[in-house]
Write a sequence for this structure.
C-alpha cells in the first residue's frame, strides 16, 4: 500500500507541473514529423549538482520527524568506516524514498552501486534519477539527473544486456537528455516489441509522441495502458492528446476520470478549468 501511495503522489506532482506549464485555452496543431524531433535539450547532459546540494534542497520539504531521521543517518555516515557505509547509505536512501525525495535517494543508491557494481543497485539509482528529472523544472538539476541516470542504466545494461527495465530506463534517459534521442526511442520500441504491455516503455513513448505532436500515436499508447489498468498519468496524457486533436468529448471524459483517480483538490481545480474551457 505504501508503494502505491508513493507512485500516486509522484504522478500527481509530475502532472501538476505539466498542468501549470500549459495554458488552459487553445489547441496545438499536430506536427508532421517524427518522434526524434521532439522538443528536448540538444546538449549532452552534465553533472552540475553535488549530492550535498541536492540534499540541502530536499530538506526544505521534510517534516520535523523526517528531517531528524535524515540528520541522524547522515551524521552516522560521515563518521562510518568502509564496512558500515553501504548499510547506512541504504538506510538513508530508504529514508529519502519514504519522504518522496527521489533525487537524494538516487545519489545514495548511486554511491552504493559504484562500490557494489550490483545490477539491483544500478537500477535503483537510475529509476530515482529518471523520477527526479520528471519532478523538476530546474534545467541544471535535470542535466545532473539525466547524466546520473545514463551512468546507472548503462552499467545495468552491461551486466544484463537483455533486461527490459534497464533498457527502458536507459531509453528514457537518452531521450530526455537529447544527446541520443534516436537511440533512446529505438531502445523503447525494442522493449515494446518484446513486451507489448510494458508500462514504462508505453508511457514514455506516449509522452514523447506528444512532445513531437504525434497525438494519434500518443492516444494509442495511453489507451493500451489504461486497458491494462486505470492510472492517473495515462488518463491525464490521454486527455491532453484528445484535447490537442480537437476531440472535446473524449478529452472531457478522460480529464474527469483522471480527476477521480487523483483525489487531489488543487490539481482537480485546474483540471476543472480545462473541462470548463472545452465545454464552451
Amino acid at each position: 500500500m505504501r508503494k502505491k501511495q508513493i507512485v500516486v503522489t509522484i504522478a500527481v506532482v509530475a502532472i501538476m507541473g505539466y498542468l501549470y506549464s500549459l495554458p488552459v485555452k487553445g489547441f496545438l496543431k499536430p506536427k508532421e514529423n517524427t518522434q526524434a524531433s521532439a522538443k528536448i535539450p540538444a546538449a549532452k547532459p552534465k553533472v552540475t549538482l553535488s549530492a550535498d546540494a541536492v540534499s540541502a534542497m530536499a530538506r526544505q520539504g521534510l517534516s520535523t520527524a523526517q528531517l531528524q531521521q535524515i540528520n541522524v543517518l547522515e551524521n552516522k555516515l560521515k563518521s562510518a568506516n568502509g564496512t558500515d557505509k553501504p548499510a547506512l547509505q541504504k538506510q538513508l536512501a530508504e529514508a529519502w524514498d519514504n519522504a518522496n525525495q527521489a533525487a537524494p535517494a538516487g545519489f545514495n543508491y548511486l554511491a552504493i552501486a559504484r562500490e557494489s557494481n550490483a545490477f539491483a543497485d544500478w537500477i535503483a539509482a537510475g529509476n530515482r534519477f529518471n523520477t527526479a528529472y520528471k519532478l523538476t523544472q530546474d534545467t541544471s538539476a535535470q542535466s545532473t539527473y539525466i547524466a546520473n541516470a545514463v551512468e546507472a542504466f548503462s552499467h545495468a545494461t552491461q551486466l544484463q544486456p537483455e533486461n527490459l527495465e534497464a533498457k527502458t530506463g536507459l531509453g528514457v534517459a537518452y531521450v530526455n537528455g537529447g544527446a541520443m534521442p534516436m537511440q533512446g526511442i529505438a531502445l523503447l520500441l525494442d522493449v515494446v516489441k518484446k513486451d507489448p504491455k510494458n508500462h514504462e516503455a508505453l508511457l514514455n513513448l506516449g509522452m514523447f509522441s506528444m512532445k513531437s505532436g504525434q497525438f494519434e500515436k500518443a492516444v494509442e499508447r495511453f489507451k493500451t495502458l489504461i486497458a491494462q489498468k486505470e492510472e492517473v498519468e495515462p488518463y491525464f496524457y490521454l486527455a491532453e492528446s484528445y484535447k490537442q486533436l480537437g476531440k472535446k468529448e473524449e478529452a472531457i471524459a478522460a480529464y474527469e476520470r483522471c480527476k477521480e483517480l487523483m483525489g487531489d483538490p488543487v490539481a482537480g481545480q485546474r483540471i476543472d478549468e480545462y473541462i470548463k474551457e472545452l465545454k464552451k
